[in-house]
Amino acid sequence: MQQARAAxxxxxxxxxxxxGGRLHAATGDPELERYYLxxxxxxxxxxxxxxxxxxxxxxxxxTGGAPNTRLSSTSESTGADGDALQQLDFGSVxxxxxxxxxxxxxxxxxxxxxxxxxxxxGAQHGVLVLxxxxxxxxxxxxxxxxxxxxxxxTQPLDESTHVPR
Length: 165
Known about the structure:
Layout: H1 2-6, H2 10-26, H3 30-47, H4 50-62, H5 81-87, H6 90-103, H7 106-121, E1 125-132, E2 135-143, E3 155-156
Antiparallel strand pairs: 1-2, 2-3
Helix pairs in contact: 2-3, 3-4
């Protein structure tokens, strides 16, 4: 949260605050849960994500917040649910998505996903096969215990020696 604040990334700080609230909810600390969710709502409001603010306000009402306590003033609330969505700044959403896509380390994400799939399947080796215009290609492979994800050049499935037939 501090790094996001220092970098001026309001949307990331809001998301981190929300996730912090969810963490404290899962660990049974409702006081910190409410603190972080209220903080997230304040940041989302500053960012212009009014529908998200409304969602968090509703949740806080259901999670033991003080009765009739709202995170925004009545002058900021909207009449219909659709109005809040229309106020969402789609330029900000697109900017955030672009920022997040640059922050996400795809190889690390793919490695973690493959580890989970391999573990859940009870396998020792996994291969990611994707369809490209009707033809199947091997995009990545992972073996239990390997330190890194094997991502060779995309190879047609028919030519792969790593997939049992």
